[in-house]
Amino acid sequence: MQCRLRTILIALGVVACLLSVVAPASAQPVRYIAFGDSLTFGFGEEGVDCQRNPTRAGFPSRVAELFDGQPWATVMINDGVCGLTTSQALSVVTPSLNRNAQVFILMLGTNDIVQRFSNESIVFNLRQVGQRAEAAGFEVILLGPPPMRREPSLRLALTDLNEMLAGVARREGWLYKDLDVALSDVPGLLNRIYVDPLHPSAEGYDLYAEEIFPLATAAAYEVQAGRKRFCRLFGPCKHGEGGCIDDGDCATGLSCVADAGADFGLAPTVDVCIDPGSPVECGLPPGHVNRCGNFTCIPCGPGEGDCDSDDECRGDLVCATGLGPDFGYGEVDVCVAPTYPFDLPAGDDGTGDDDGSGDDGGGDDDDGGGGDDGGGNDGNGDGGGGDTGCPVPIFSSQYCALCGPCSEGQGQCSAASQCAPGLTCETLVTLNGSVSVCLDIDLGPDSTTTQPTVPEPPLPPRPTGTNG
To answer: What 3 state SS string does the chain have?
Structure first.
């Protein structure tokens, strides 16, 4: 036992040293909600019953005491309810989520196990409670229920439950501690610290607090670095201040912009209140991982990245996956035209030069080409003159329908009737989706081709017999 406590103290000393370095001197108080059943409320401790909860009861007040001397003050609110099950928690958690706090400590499940509810239902309910807390902006700490002095079948159910909760915490990104494992390996501990099969004494709650404190300090650091619910608790925030949850946390006229913290000297994941008309210029080079998502840089133009969605691209541009090397970047996503890589060079929209020379294959003066007459590929004017009056650019979805028939390689088309004679409308798959263009493809005979009629051979003459 002495060795174990010494290890805990060493660990706490390391955490305290770390926090003294990283925490700002003017850190705001960190507020915690401890939500659970009688094991959170503090039942079992002398002078505590389910109608009366002294100031120092259960593990919440003890965790707060361990923060004495830390760079920030700590407020711990005990929202334990005697007899609470996980299904009941879904109905009564809302008032706790409306409190002015930033960290949500969740420990439930003991009453469910005693009443022999399935572990699957317990896990489902706890995930729902935790997700609601996270959606409200809380940093979530999930605690696996502590050991119990009950029959082996219930203890086994508790072990299985806590293993399942560990998986939930990993998937959700929540802090987690299995109190059953943390306390069950101490010989004779349960007989000494428990006043009944489920509830510990004051000494037991002291041990709970020692196990929970490292998670509480980690959550406190996340709150300070990520400024969890800062604007809601201390706002409304001004331009460049975070973290906000929605526009309502910001001063009038400001918007809550996700993951903009790095632009204002905060952690990159902090959501910040920003004036949409702010004159701040983009300071990130094209290809930077945060360029198109940076509020001062969006939307990105053609060939710029890194983008995460079409919304971060200008106009009708789309965010194409992995095209960074095409533009001299790394493996990033880039804003390009929907027709990329079929885009034509600047100044060449498929209609020819202003002098009508038909750059795309016009012939010489003596070969029937379009050098002087505005002709194109076949001398018949496919390249068009400098101004054909087409209301849409080449490779737009309606180009061939409005300005066709299209010659080979032009698009987009939607049917062969929009292509020049002998061509068909084909859909080609590109790096950024698909594009339909007119192509000369010999499809061979098919069901739509008229086949020559071949007369059937005449039947052979019917043999004639004799009667004799």
So the answer is: CHHHHHHHHHHHHHHHHHHHHHCCCCCCCEEEEEEECHHHHCECECCCECCECCCCCHHHHHHHHHCCCCCCCEEEEEEECCCCCHHHHHHHCHHHHCCCCCEEEEECCHHHHHCCCCHHHHHHHHHHHHHHHHHCCCEEEEEECCCCCCCHHHHHHHHHHHHHHHHHHHHHCCEEEEHHHHHHCCCCHHHHHECCCCCECHHHHHHHHHHHHHHHHHHHHHHHHHCCCHHHHHCCECCCCECCCCHHHECCCCEEECCCHHHHCCCCCCCEEECCCCCCCCCCCCCCCCCCCCCCCCCECCCCECCCCHHHECCCCEEECCCHHHHCCCCCCEEECCCCCCCCCCCCCCCCCCCCCCCCCCCCCCCCCCCCCCCCCCCCCCCCCCCCCCCCCCCCCCHHHHHCCECCCCECCCCHHHECCCCEEEEEEECCEEEEEEECCCCCCCCCCCCCCCCCCCCCCCCCCCCC
Residues 64-82 have pLDDT tens digits of 888 876 666 678 899 999 9
Give 95-132 pLDDT, tens digit per residue.
999 998 889 999 999 999 999 999 999 999 999 999 99
Q: Which segment, 27-36, 134-143, 177-186, 348-357, is predicted with the most confidence on average?
A: 134-143
- How much is the average pLDDT of 331-341? 79
* Alpha carbon 327 to chain centroid, angstroms: 27
